[in-house]
Amino acid sequence: MTEQCERQELESPGGIATPVVYSQLLGLYLLHNDMTNAKFLWKRIPQALKVSNPELNNIWTVGQKMWLREFPAIYQSLNQDWSENVKPIMQALLENVRSRSFQLIAKAYSSIGLDEFVMFLGMPTEQAVNAAVSEGWSVDSQNKLISPKKQVATDDPPIPSENQLAQLTEFVAFLEN
């Protein structure tokens, strides 16, 4: 869908797409955590469209909070009524942010306070505890601590030498041009 929106932007008359296309594309960039493309898209959206379309500004607010990694503010910005054009994208973004938060907590903490855990996940305490338990994490209700289950480190499969040589060749060609 991202490629389709990019194509619509490029093929639009005068190089200016509709607010719907910009909203969807910005949301998709955020969904894929492609902050660089989201930022450049925001810069090339005409100011008149930014002013006349508050939903576009709301999506960008989510992006700004993601850039700053302000998790409570991300969830607060995502918690609104979105138009039907971007609603599925923004719901997927919410789930994606929560999933990434879960992974970050698992990697960074041996135990985390319940209040901080709830803040990182942007959900009610009971829901957050249930989510932790469903992941196999231990919950100490008395001390209000959650201990993530340690993840098994997985190594990337080795790249066959022909593919590695091709990648190196492409990289060198890129640097020369």
Explain how this protein is built.
This protein is mainly α and 177 residues long. The chain has 10 helices and 3 strands. It has helices at 2-11, 19-31, 35-44, 47-52, 54-68, 71-78, 87-108, 114-121, 125-134, 161-176; strands at 112-113, 138-140, 145-147. Strands 1-3-2 form a 3-stranded antiparallel β-sheet. β2 (138-140) and β3 (145-147) form a beta hairpin. The longest helix has 22 residues, at 87-108. It is flat and about 65 Å long. 23% of the residues are buried.
Keyphrases for this structure?
about 180 residues; three-stranded antiparallel beta sheet; flat
Set down the secondary structure blueprint.
Layout: H1 2-11, H2 19-31, H3 35-44, H4 47-52, H5 54-68, H6 71-78, H7 87-108, E1 112-113, H8 114-121, H9 125-134, E2 138-140, E3 145-147, H10 161-176
Antiparallel strand pairs: 1-3, 2-3
Strand content: under 5%
In percent, how helical is the residue content? 55-70%
Return the string of H and E elements.
Answer: HHHHHHHEHHEEH
Q: Quote the average pLDDT.
A: 88
Tell me the overall shape.
flat
Radius of gyration: 20 Å
The class by helix and strand makeup works out as mainly alpha
Number of helices: 10
Largest sheet: 3 strands, antiparallel
Uncertain spans = none
Sequence of strands across the biggest β-sheet: 1-3-2
Describe the structure concisely for a colleague.
This protein is mainly α and 177 residues long. It has helices at residues 2-11, 19-31, 35-44, 47-52, 54-68, 71-78, 87-108, 114-121, 125-134, 161-176, and strands at 112-113, 138-140, 145-147.
